[in-house]
């Protein structure tokens, strides 16, 4: 029997309550303006989000992270039938977006330390049809992005930063290493809207300009399509909310890192834990006894989750793209477990969870 979670895996309301006044003011500003799409709030958020990543970057708000990946790939010139190297351990969205762009996903095995694409997979799997690498920074942990960019050579690298807003590699923010980057503002992400949202980021003004066309019918001029595209917009309410929340992002990430350090200190002798250098969208541990541990924690009121239980190359709609087994990805899927981690979690909560994990191992 599972008892009601004493510590739920995630909780969004405390984060809203903590900045409720600022959110109410932003929402009121949009309601008072009478302007709900493609207006000043979007422009302001795009400017602030680009500046957060260094002043010369261009940000283009879109309707979701999945759309940001699709539009990002298309803006990089990916054509139907082009092959894109993708991870299989990062959930369905990056793969679904690649297929939606008309491209052929080629699954890469994961590096068990960073959980990103193992850089050696690029040379193993590229063919003369390969055009791009979709590098996901999973769990807030930067992938080996410099090695990936080096191994990619003339292939375009699109970074999927949906779980890693604000993470840095040698002081440089993720999303600025590849030719372009895609972000999600799904509510649970480190930077989350109160609904759907996403953005494409690029230092290349031409890539950004193409993303702008692709997010709305291929229009540069209203009602006149330059190329076929459907529509995917970031609305004014979400943009205003994200502008408020962006100012808190670094603080929230610091809190996530502090809580993760606490987990690491009490658990790293028992289970594999993530390296310390990410922004801890999730706190993921690894143990061959994962299923028993998950049930044990549920019995003690601790909510957990698995990100992700089903490698995408083994899922029915995508299995025909698989070019063989991915041993590290398949093993990780059996061993990973995500513990509760969000900025409003207290140190007492972390200690309780860590204590229960230690109890499971008889430690
Ligand atoms: C959340 C997520 C997405 C998709 O974002 P949506 O906004 O939900 O479409 C893409 N990639 C990764 C790695 C994600 O975690």
Quickly describe the structure.
With 363 residues, the protein is an alpha/beta fold.
In what range is the share of β-strand residues? Answer: 15-25%
What small ligands are held by the chains? pyridoxal-5'-phosphate
Helix and strand composition category: alpha/beta
The overall average pLDDT, rounded, is: 97
- Computed Rg: 20 Å
Q: What's the total count of β strands?
A: 14
Stretches with pLDDT under 50, minimum 5 residues: none
In whole angstroms, how far apart are the ends? 24 Å
Major sheet: size, sense and barrel closure? 7 strands, mixed
**What strand line-up does the widest sheet have?**
1-9-8-5-4-2-3
Based on Cα principal axes, name the global outline: globular
**Helix and strand element order:** HHHEHEHEHEHEEEEEHEEHEEHHEH
**SS summary, helix count:** 12
Share of helix among residues?
A: 25-40%
